[in-house]
Amino acid sequence: MDYVENFRHNMRNQQAHLNHNLVAMKSIGYEVVQTVLRLPGLILLELWWRNREMTFEEISQEMLTKAPFNSYLDITTILAFVHRRDMDQSAGYILSYSVLLLSALLLTLPLGRLLRVYCHFLVLATLGIAHYMSTIYVQLEQDSQELELKLDDFVKLERHGFHFLAQLLLAVMNSFLLGLESDMARIFLTPFTIPIIARMCACPLEKLIVAHNAACSIAMFSVCIYMLNRTPRMAQYFKNAFLQLRAVFFIHGLAMGCVIVWRRLRVAELLTWTWLTIFHVRVYVEMYEKGREWRETGRVLLTSIAEATNTPLSLLALALTVSFLCKWIVDGVQLVVGGTRDHGHVLANSGYTEALTLVLLCVQTGVLGMKTEQKAFLLGLVFFVVMSALLQSLFELVEPELLTLAASPSVARGRHVRCIFVTILLFFAPIVMSTAVTAFLPLDLWFVIIASNCILTAVHSACTLFIYLIGVVEARASEPWERSDDLVYNCRLATKITELTIAILVFLYGLYTTFTVGWTYASLGVLLVHAVINIYTRIGGLVSSTRSRNAARLNLSLLPMATPEQLEKAKDDMCAICFGEMVTEARVCPLCYKEMSTGPKPKDPAEEPLLDAVFNPIGAARDLWPLGQNPGYESGFDSDETDGSEFTLGSSDADEL
């Protein structure tokens, strides 16, 4: 019985797992189909925005040179008809509004109705194919010069039967796409069989074109009747959709309503895939049609990005693409280092910060109104800024994880190796990126400022890796390493000195370019802000840190050392501040708070400090930590609230910070 129950339990688990996989595949397939079907809507909207300033004459000339179906549609005759009747402006308005309406339908319709729209497009295409085949049939019959048709042989019936069967198959396909259930409606799908039947019924050759014209008339009449029957339903659907949209904004407000519509229509994903499609088309044109070499890949990518970003819509799509890319990179790094992939805020490590930076920089510099070469240069500079911000975000994610692992020897080695690998990558990536960008960006003040930020990320990564190694050695040492805090402090001090040195070099280079190349108000403003933020504040922070360190060392040196007898009695105890063992050295720290000194009083005054260390660790910790943070803190030595008879054991001289 146990075997049967286990078998049933395993079968239920496998079935549940299979159902879960099927649901996931269905969800992914639904999103893929929806994206593919809605993608032409945004592409049409992008093309409309790019060509909205073109006149109808320019559009017609482009249609004459690039139309792939000119032989069948006879574009020349159609455009000549429009020109002769002075309908250029009206035709332009009709074409423009038709594109906007079609884009709106493709972007807003639900998936079921969107499939119906594409089915109707296919029906129109099959009707065009049927019309073309009927035209070919009439021409073949007129070229055959057979005045009298005799179907007394299977070979003679073959040509007519083939055309009739082809028209019948097209009618069956249209019936399936439209979902018609009426037999009378299906009959109206076969109008182009009339010329074939007329010819098989001995219709004269000169009258065969009349049968073809009658078939075209019946087809157009059928389309009109179908549209008249469907238009009220379409109008009712748009009315219901408008009421639903108004209800959403009425309930959730304007801002939240826009967010709901944005998410429900999946605008961000559609814009991203639209921009990627246009970008890959431009890369194909640059690499294969223009014959660019592979060593020009960097310039080709920048040129393709510039060509794919010509409108505000494509700029927004580029920003969203960068946002998704940065978010995927951050999620991947968090997965590698072992952290969670939950974002505490929508702008924290989710890519929106980089996207907002890109949009603001592009709008400020006027990228959309520039030529391709200038646009490629500025976009390269903007992407350099975005990548620098991304590397800094990755460092802010990796640094706490790495420092936490340094004090956790029980964590698996694989996680240590992954974190070290990412930190080393963050050390080399800014240097490689700064070196590579110099190949196609000039060495000016803006580039030097951005490159210095990248170099600072590399310096911080090296500092973090060095502190991690110190922590690992200290955590695995058999005895406390008294000089570890000094090494950490010196490492951080060297990092701050390096930051200040790089900032001074950037300022000097800015002064050099100002006097040699020329100056502008923007460059002077940037130098002034750089001098205040990156030089003055760092000098102040460096001086303050040094003074705090020296003051803390001085204050700690004033505290009395614990006697060997006290250390021997407290060997089973721990420090109230750092929770470490007091083995070789400890300081006696006075308490500042009488309310913290409650507890049993020892009979022997020599045991008083030991008991206070046990019963008042909070007072000791609150009293000693300000020594390392505020050099002017006097620890309440001269305060009336201080009880000089109460002491606790502090940490050693190496733990003053």
UniProtKB/TrEMBL annotation:
<keyword id="KW-0863">Zinc-finger</keyword>
<feature type="transmembrane region" description="Helical">
    <location>
        <begin position="91"/>
        <end position="109"/>
    </location>
</feature>
<keyword id="KW-0472">Membrane</keyword>
<dbReference type="GO" id="GO:0008270">
    <property type="term" value="F:zinc ion binding"/>
</dbReference>
<feature type="transmembrane region" description="Helical">
    <location>
        <begin position="241"/>
        <end position="262"/>
    </location>
</feature>
<keyword id="KW-0862">Zinc</keyword>
<feature type="transmembrane region" description="Helical">
    <location>
        <begin position="419"/>
        <end position="440"/>
    </location>
</feature>
<feature type="region of interest" description="Disordered">
    <location>
        <begin position="626"/>
        <end position="657"/>
    </location>
</feature>
<dbReference type="GO" id="GO:0012505">
    <property type="term" value="C:endomembrane system"/>
</dbReference>
<feature type="transmembrane region" description="Helical">
    <location>
        <begin position="446"/>
        <end position="472"/>
    </location>
</feature>
<protein>
    <recommendedName>
        <fullName>TRC8-like N-terminal domain-containing protein</fullName>
    </recommendedName>
</protein>
<feature type="transmembrane region" description="Helical">
    <location>
        <begin position="208"/>
        <end position="229"/>
    </location>
</feature>
<dbReference type="Pfam" id="PF13705">
    <property type="entry name" value="TRC8_N"/>
</dbReference>
<keyword id="KW-0812">Transmembrane</keyword>
<dbReference type="InterPro" id="IPR050731">
    <property type="entry name" value="HRD1_E3_ubiq-ligases"/>
</dbReference>
<feature type="transmembrane region" description="Helical">
    <location>
        <begin position="160"/>
        <end position="180"/>
    </location>
</feature>
<dbReference type="GO" id="GO:0036503">
    <property type="term" value="P:ERAD pathway"/>
</dbReference>
<keyword id="KW-1133">Transmembrane helix</keyword>
<keyword id="KW-0479">Metal-binding</keyword>
<dbReference type="GO" id="GO:0016020">
    <property type="term" value="C:membrane"/>
</dbReference>
<dbReference type="InterPro" id="IPR025754">
    <property type="entry name" value="TRC8_N_dom"/>
</dbReference>
<feature type="transmembrane region" description="Helical">
    <location>
        <begin position="493"/>
        <end position="512"/>
    </location>
</feature>
<dbReference type="GO" id="GO:0061630">
    <property type="term" value="F:ubiquitin protein ligase activity"/>
</dbReference>
<feature type="domain" description="TRC8-like N-terminal">
    <location>
        <begin position="31"/>
        <end position="539"/>
    </location>
</feature>
<feature type="transmembrane region" description="Helical">
    <location>
        <begin position="311"/>
        <end position="330"/>
    </location>
</feature>
<dbReference type="GO" id="GO:0043161">
    <property type="term" value="P:proteasome-mediated ubiquitin-dependent protein catabolic process"/>
</dbReference>
<feature type="transmembrane region" description="Helical">
    <location>
        <begin position="376"/>
        <end position="398"/>
    </location>
</feature>
<feature type="transmembrane region" description="Helical">
    <location>
        <begin position="121"/>
        <end position="140"/>
    </location>
</feature>
